[in-house]
Each structure stands twice: as structure tokens, then as C-alpha cells.
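Student: Please help interpret what follows.
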Amino acid sequence: MISEDTRAYIYSHWHPFFSFSQISILKEIKTRYPDVVTAGIIHNVLPHERFPMQEIPTRRLFKLTDHPIVLSEQTHRQYCDLMDGVNPEKLFHPVYEQDWPTEDRTSIRRRLGYEEDEIIVLFFGLVRTYKGLDVLIDALNLINLENTRIRPLIVGEFYIEPQQITNKIKSAHLPYYEIVNRYVSDEEAAVYLAASDVMVLPYRTASQSGVLSNALNFDLPVIVSDLPGLTEHIEYGETGLIVPPEDPVSLAGELVKVATSIDLNIMRNHVKNQREQLSWKRFTDELLSILDIR
């Protein structure tokens, strides 16, 4: 709510469809409350899947914004390209502060039907083409899941025809897969995240990732595509592993390393330290500094 006492108006932007309403709001603010500072937290400069005439409303919105703020190196580059070299402020995607399950990890895994020595490889979030679940399945098809004890766990609502993806799974591998094709609550998501050994983000494109923030919150090592929006806060061999996009052979090799030669407990400790560096407190302090609000 805008009033005479308001010092800043902050909005989030992730898709041009919502630009029109924000443009109207910003125009009203600048007319009636010229002293109010406007800021946009820009999750995506442009959407992953093209939207008609997407550049026009997005440019108009950004031109009305006093402090455009991006959350990754990738979105910084995209903003500069769209806005002809104008530099936005750059922060980071803070780690989601989601509660852990009260049940301990060993009990959760047992309840879900996993043995202690099995490696749960998690793909989490909405299933869209750009997220590359098919690339992960192609990689898993190259691995002996029985010998490596790798167990794929796919949790997320499919926004594409599920058979496009599931038909790619080798028939001999089907008993090792668990697929949860639906929306899951925060509480249920926490169970799957706490139980897993590694999360895989085999994305074709990325600005930054809330799914990655979920992994960090649960001290979960990751394997990510070598894209600026994903790798910016990942140290290879420390907090995660990095593979070329759309390269099932390289991804298969890293998955085998996870199963055979990497100490995941050491990695979890490194992830925990990284989580503290990307906290909401640090994000808020830096945001208030940009807006000159204390």
C-alpha cells in the first residue's frame, strides 16, 4: 500500500505478462508520490519460453524502475543486452529458509523404501522442456543402476506430456525409478529433499534457480549444467559438480563419481557453509543499502 510515508516500492518480475499491471502502478507512483523510490527484483529478464512481443512491455517496465536488481550473472548479461548496456544492480538468489522435517533422515529413507547404501538422485520442480529431465534420463540409461545403487527420484508436476520423458527410460531401469507427478506441499518437499543424496539440474537454459536454493537449504550437493545462472555459487568438487549442457555422457560420468568416489558427507558440510553466505539477512542488508533505507 502506497502512502505519504512510503519510502520505497519493490516488485518482483519474472514474466512479461505481469509487466502491464506493474507499469500502471509505477506510473501512478511517479505521478502521485514522486519521492518514492521504485525497485524491481528481476528473477527473469525474459521468460525461458518465448512470449509474444516480450521485449516491449519489459523494456517499458524497466525504464520506469529506479533500481532494477538482478539475481545472477546470467540475468545481468540479459538485462544489459535488452537495455542497451544499462547496468542493473546485482544481488543473489537467497537460500529458501524452509523447515526441516522433524523425522530424522535415516527414518525418512526407510519409510520411503530406500536402503542405507542407495544413492537417491533427485530431480525436483516443475517439469518443463528447458529443465532437461530427458538429458538426465539419457545419462542414467548409460549407467548400471543395480551395481551403482543409484535410485532416480523425480518429484514435480509435468508441464509436458509425461510419456515424452518416461518412454525414454530403459525398461530394465523402471523398477529403480520413483516418479511423483504432482504438486507437493512444502512439508512433503522437505521430506524428499532431506532424504536425497544429490540433486541434478540438467537445465538447457537458466537465469537462476529457486530449486537450487531449495537444495542449499537442505545441505544437498548438486550436479548442474555449466550455465552462469547455475554455477555462480557452485565450487566444483566442494558444493557440487558441473557438466556441459545437454551432454548425457558427461552427466553419467559425474553420477558414477557420486556413487563410487565422492564423500557426500564432506560435500554436505561445504554446502552448509555456502548456505550461510547466501542468507536472507545478507540479502536484506544489501538491498536496503542499495535503496538507502536503514
